[in-house]
Each structure stands twice: as C-alpha cells, then as structure tokens.
Amino acid sequence: MDQVNVGLCGLGTVGTGVVKLLQSHADEIKYKIGSEIRIKKILVHDIEKKRDVVIESDWLTNKPEDLVNNPDIDIIIEVMGGIEDTNLLLEQAIRNKKHIVTANKDLMAVYGQKLLRLAKENKCDILYDASVAGGIPIIRSLTEGLASDKIQKIMGIVNGTTNYILTKMTDHKLAYETVLKEAQALGFAESDPTSDVDGLDAARKMTLLANLAFKMEIGLDDVEVTGIRTISQEDITFATSLGYTIKLIGIAAIYEGKVEISVEPTLLPNDHPLAQVKNEYNAVYVYGEAVGETMFYGPGAGSMPTATAVVSDLMDVVKNIRLGITGNEYIIPQYEKQLKENNEKYMQYFIRMEVDDQAGTFQKITNIFTDEKVSFQKILQLPSNTEKLAEIVMITHKISKQQLINSRENLKGLDVVNEIISCYRVDGED
Amino acid sequence: MDQVNVGLCGLGTVGTGVVKLLQSHADEIKYKIGSEIRIKKILVHDIEKKRDVVIESDWLTNKPEDLVNNPDIDIIIEVMGGIEDTNLLLEQAIRNKKHIVTANKDLMAVYGQKLLRLAKENKCDILYDASVAGGIPIIRSLTEGLASDKIQKIMGIVNGTTNYILTKMTDHKLAYETVLKEAQALGFAESDPTSDVDGLDAARKMTLLANLAFKMEIGLDDVEVTGIRTISQEDITFATSLGYTIKLIGIAAIYEGKVEISVEPTLLPNDHPLAQVKNEYNAVYVYGEAVGETMFYGPGAGSMPTATAVVSDLMDVVKNIRLGITGNEYIIPQYEKQLKENNEKYMQYFIRMEVDDQAGTFQKITNIFTDEKVSFQKILQLPSNTEKLAEIVMITHKISKQQLINSRENLKGLDVVNEIISCYRVDGED
Question: Which of B120, B205, B340, B401 is catalytic?
Fold first, then answer.
C-alpha cells in the first residue's frame, strides 16, 4: 500500500489547515508511515468560493456521494461539523469500508458508541483525538502512551470559553455578564453561549474520555453537570481569601468498577497545577495506577492545533490499515456500566449562606451538620451588607454527596438560615 | 508475525515492572499491536536471587551473548543502566539486527547519535521515550502527536531531584545544604548528587529533546549549564518578594535555523504553569508553530512510570517492524548544527549585588548599564546587613547575553560594587 487516498469533508479553517499540513509535510509523513497520503475529493457547500490554499481542479465537490461512495477513497476526514446529517454521511462511509477521522465532539458524544460499533463490524477505524481539546494529545496518550496502565481518574479543564470567563472574573474582578459580553465581542464565546457556560460542551468531552479510560458505555445523561452562570464575584472573593481558585472542572473516576462523572464549578488550592491554567487554555490531569499523576496542557481549540491533531490521527489510521489492526477491539466498551450512588461519592464542599446575625444561630447550624456527621476544615463568618444578617462560609472535610444533600435540605428548614447562596465542591488537597 | 520475542537486560525495579505489565496486559497488548510479545531471556547479575515477579525457569542468564547473539530474539529492552559496557552490548545487538528499547539517558546522551546511525544502517529501531522524564510521554508527543508541526521551543523542568530541593527551599525556607541532606536521607537525591545539582542530568535530557525537535546533532558540550548549588535563601526571598519562583529550567529554542540550548536557574512569574510544578515532578512545555503552547506534566522518574514508558515504546517497535518503517529516517539529524552567538540570545536577567551605601553609587552603576543599552523593569534597593553596604536587586528588560557579559565585566571594575552576589535569567513574561 504505497498510497492512501483521502476524502475531506469540510474546507473551513480546520480543513484548510489539514490540506496545508499534508502539503508541507508530505515527505516527512511518508517516511513516518511508509505510505503517501493523497487528497482525492473535498466536500464543500460552495465550489466557486475562493480558497486560501492550493487545491487541484478536480478535488472540490458538493455531493457527499462523491466521497462516501467513491471506491478510490480509503479514509474520510470529517471537519465540517453538524450532527444528524453528518452521522448519516459517516454511517454510509463506514458501510462502504471507509475509515474515519473526525474532529466532531458533538457528533461523537451523541452517536460515538453507535459509530464505533458499526466501524468494528466493518473493520474500520474511527479516530477522534481532534474532537477533545484540539491541541492536547490526550486521547492519544490514553490509548497509547498509557496503554499498559489502568486509568483511575481523569480531571481537567476541558472548555476554553468558560475558563476564559472565570480567569477574567478572577484576575480583573469583573462580573460574569460583563466578561461574557467581552468574550462574545472577541469571538471567544458564541452568541448563544449555552453549550459552553452550562457545562454541556465539557460534559461531552468528559464522556468521550471516560468511555476510553474506563471502557464502559457512559452517556451524556450519566454526567452530573453544573455550569458557571451562577458564580458571583463574591464567591470568587471568598474563594480567593481562603486560598482557592474557582474553575469549571470535569471529573471522571472509577473505584472498584464503579464510575462517577461530573462537570461542576470547583475550588482548587491556588498552588494546584489546574488552578494556574488561564484564559482559553485546557489541561487534563490523568491518574494511572502505574504511572501516577500526569497532566497535559495546551490550547483547547483553534484551527491549527485541531488540524495538527487530525493529521496525527490520519497517520495512525494509515498505520493501523497496514498493520491490520483497524476496528480496534479496545476502543469499544468492554465492561457493564456501573455508576456510583450519592453515598459513594466523597468530596469536600464550599458552602456559603446568609444567616440571622443573632446569638444561637451558629449553634443551630452546626447541630444540623453534626447530625449528618459533617465536620469542617475552615469556617469564616462575616457581617453581611444587609443589616442583622451575617454571611457564613464553610469548607467541609470530605463527605458523601448524600450527606451534603441531607444537610442542605435540613438547613433550608431552619428559620435562622436566610439563604444558601452557593455551594461548590472543593478538590485537589489529597 | 504472530509473535515477537524480547530479551530484557536488567531485572531491577524497572525491569520487574516491565515483566509485570507484559504479563498483566498481555491480551490488551496483543489486540493493540496485532502480535504477542514473549520474553525469551533476562540478563541479570545473580541468577539465584529471589525475584518479586513470576519468571519462567529458562529465562534468567548472566551471559549477554544469550541475548544479543540469540537468533530467536527480535527486540532488546535495556533497563540495566551503565554507559561503556552497555554501549558495546547494544552495538553488538544492533549488528545482529535487533531493535532496541532503552530507558538509559546517560547512554543516549553520550552514544545516542552513534547508536541511532548504526541502527539506521541495520534497519533497526532505537526507542528511548523512557529515558527522558519517565512518566511523561514527551518523546512520543514530539515524534507523533506533533509530527506534522514545527517545534520552535522546548522549555521545562526535567530533573526531579533539583526541583524537589528548590521546592523545599522555597516553601519551607530551608538552606540548600539542609534540604540536600534531607533529600539524600529520603532517597530523592544520590549520595553523590553532582550529576543532578550541577545540571548535567537535565542537560542530557535537553540534548535528547533538542536533537529530536530540531533534527540537528546537538551534543552535551553545546549546552550552557549552571546548577543550583549557589542558590541561596536570600535569592529565593528576593525572587518571591518580586513575584517570582526560582526553578532549574532547561531551554532549547530555534530561530532562523540557529539553536540555543541551556540549563540554568531561572526566575518565573508565580502564575507561570512551570512555577507551580513541585517536588519531584517534571514538566515540559513545547511551543509548536501550528499547535501553539502545550505542556506535559508528570513524575520525572520512578520505576512504574518508567516501565509504562518502556512497554509503550516496545509496542511501537513491534508496530514499526510490521509496518516496515524501522530505522526511522526522521530521528536521524537532517540539518547542520548551528548555534546562536551570545549577541543573538535574548533574555531578561535578575542581578543582585552588594554596593557601597553612599551618594553617587547608584548613578555609577546605572551609567554602566546605560553604556550597554541595558534598561530595567524592576529595581529594589535595601540596606545590607553589613554596615555602610546596601543591596541592589535589578530585573532587566530583554537584553542579549553579550550585553549581560559586558555589563558584569564593567561592574566588576567599579569601586562602589563590592560583589555581584547572584545573576539568574528571568523568563515566562512574553
């Protein structure tokens, strides 16, 4: 197999980057994989549009069938986005025994398991390193570098938009709404920021990583998700004064075969490596039984980082074709899904509430926590802006999620508690 | 090729880890590479010694020729250490067409280029990811994940012992000698710590990374090395008060085909990701033209992380054998070595000196810097402990190394300058 033919779906910034990399690194790629990679067709909406890259006259088409039904094409690179139509296109391609490289995390989060199974039946590869944290070779590391290890925990910042917003809120003491508007003006956040700020984008990525690490079929519904909309400047000020930084953290962990997976605002000690990851950067920390703690840090997205990841995946597919190891058994779930119950999830929590500033309040509150066997690492009490009210900020020792839920429920029934203003988990002090 | 046979040199903690991983992950490895890996022979000093792993009766030998001249063995894993004898052993193995996986950075820094050339002549692979920062798949990332990118700069903490010492000196305000003794007692530093504390170990690793990234034959002699012996508690205090952390940082950078490579104590802003890398951990930051800034963080050494890296390399060699792409062209230097001159290396510097506490001193000093066109970002003047002396701490803007050398020379000739106490580079504020 001296030559491998590729069909590229999409010629936006990522697609253009892929074409440029394949052209400028042609010799090197050939040496590294033992085959030449040739572009056969590129699927675009508008054939007439001017392109920012040298393309041959017969490459462009607006008919998907020119790629997915083309007997000359071995591999489909999908960098056009979209979910439903794209899924149908890739299904057809796989049925025609074409291997897939995709940068589409939305698609993979929804149809990934189905596509992977279909690919296995057809002895095809689907590689999607570019879909999670574009510039970080995290999927590659999970499947290769740490191949002989047992992954116990993955924890990280996997959404650039929310990390940008939280960084600006923390460093410049600006309100959420102000920073969001600025981010939208600069193009760092979309006009409808829901998917990012509500944590869905991060949840999709954590799902992909967890499936790979734990070899279970974990769905988006299994992720406990809280976004960053409710984080106030006061929360950040309290966190800072206690030595913490608030980040939107995804966690996927396994213990005795049971998994917990979540995306939530989380307080990290300022000297925790993840606390220093700023702006649009991503970082994923992996805990393996043999290797211990490792972290990968880099740009979460961007067209050239993503194109680099696509080309690396493409090179791997070619290698796998030549090795006869496509349709890899080990990307497919092997274990029955088992999720932890709330009484099996342990974490520290930051709880901030507004209470009546009168004698006996504190005792009533501590009684409730004591009944639930919750103890504290730090407690701060401050007068509130409002008269006759005080604010209490507490950081618990490790407790179960169930203990937290029970305590919160009981606090709500207490007359001296005016409001539980915020409640975030705390991690990174083990 | 259903089965690949391996000869293992060394059965210490790393070797034992490799055997355990190969045994416990046998099925998974077979699926991932399409071949079974079998251990044929293990070279040890003492055949009778009790071993902490299940081994077959005919595996152990104390004769190197049972491995390197054994026609049944395809791959030699070298985890026994040593330079001269080990080099001869591996040379013989390569001449017998055996592929090599090694965790031996001392060997690779001295004989790496020679062995790689010999391996190429014999169409063999030498993989050595485990030799640099055991737990971090950095070499893998440079050769694969970032395969289609152009690396511009590598910067990192690549020695665990010195990072442990600097962390304790900073966090617990202890003197260098005190921490070194503690580290030796705990086994984090060797009884002769020269190779670590004088920066040689870090320099060897930077050489390996630079050769790979820039495809030039850069030797240990090309690295400018300063160790950490002279760093005092006062240096750390001054750095802290100015918002910096002192780390032993290796830098390898290329610009217009010219390389600079060095290992030196370096002041980093406290919020720089590398400033937060503590204790024995390593972290390497890579700047690629396409991907931008990425960082890899993990345990710098340790037997299980190293064993994991060895097994990953082993799996890659098997893949390469089956792909017919061993003896990879692209690990061999392709470009003529070109090093930057001192007037082409730009950096900020921290300069601390003891001066006469009298009128006119400051002007005399600034005149010298002005003559060399050196300007400053920060200046601190404090009374010294000694009477009639003052201490001045300055942080320059970016200047050339030649400007620094000239300024220091001229300062020494100045009667009001009692001593230039310390001078370190400052990085990470671009």
Answer: B205
Encode pLDDT of B271-301 as tens digits. 788 898 988 889 998 998 887 888 888 887 6
Using an 8 Å CB-CB cutoff, list chain B residues near A25.
147-148
Average pLDDT over residues B74-89: 96
Question: For an interface test with B, which of A291, A312, A323, A331 has the most B Cβ atoms less than 10 Å from its Cβ?
Answer: A291
Pick from A25, A135, A281: CB nearest B291 = A135
Contacts of B295 in chain A (CB under 8 A): 283, 295-298
Strand pairing partners for A350? Answer: A395, A424
Q: How far is B338 from chain A (nearest CA, A)?
A: 22
Half-sphere exposure of A425 (CA within 13 A, CB side): 25
B205 is catalytic: yes
A207's tokens: 């799902």
A345-426 CATH choice from 3.40.50.300, 3.30.160.100, 1.20.1340.10, 3.30.70.260: 3.30.70.260
Average pLDDT over chain B, rounded to an integer: 90
B410, B368 Cβ separation under 8 angstroms: yes
Query: For residue A336, how many other CB atoms are within 10 A of its CB?
Result: 8
State yes or no: pLDDT of A400 exceeds 80: yes
Contacts 24+ apart (CB under 8 A), B185-189: B188/B160, B188/B161, B188/B164, B188/B280, B189/B161, B189/B164, B189/B165
Type of residue numbered B144: E
Which pLDDT score is estimated for A217? 86
Q: What is the CATH number of domain A3-135+303-330?
A: 3.40.50.720
pLDDT tens digits for range B236-247:
999 999 999 999
Q: Hey, where are the domains in chain A?
A: 3-135+303-330, 138-299, 345-426
| Superfamily covering domain A138-299 | Dihydrodipicolinate Reductase; domain 2 (3.30.360.10)
Instruction: Tell me which residue of B375, B371, B351, B343 sits closest to B426, measured CA to CA.
Output: B351
